[in-house]
Amino acid sequence: MSATAARAAALEAAICGCRKCPRLVAWREQVALEKRAAFRDQEYWGRPIPGFGDLAARVVILGLAPAAHGANRTGRIFTGDRSGDFLFAGLHRVGIANQATSVSAGDGLVLSDCFITAAVRCAPPANRPLPVERDHCASWLDEEFSLLEHARVVVCLGGFAWEAGCRLRARRGDPVPRPRPRFGHGAELPGRWPLLGCFHPSQQNTFTGRLTPGMLDEVLLRAREMAGHPGPAGS
Question: Is 231 within the bounds of a domain?
Answer without folding.
Answer: no
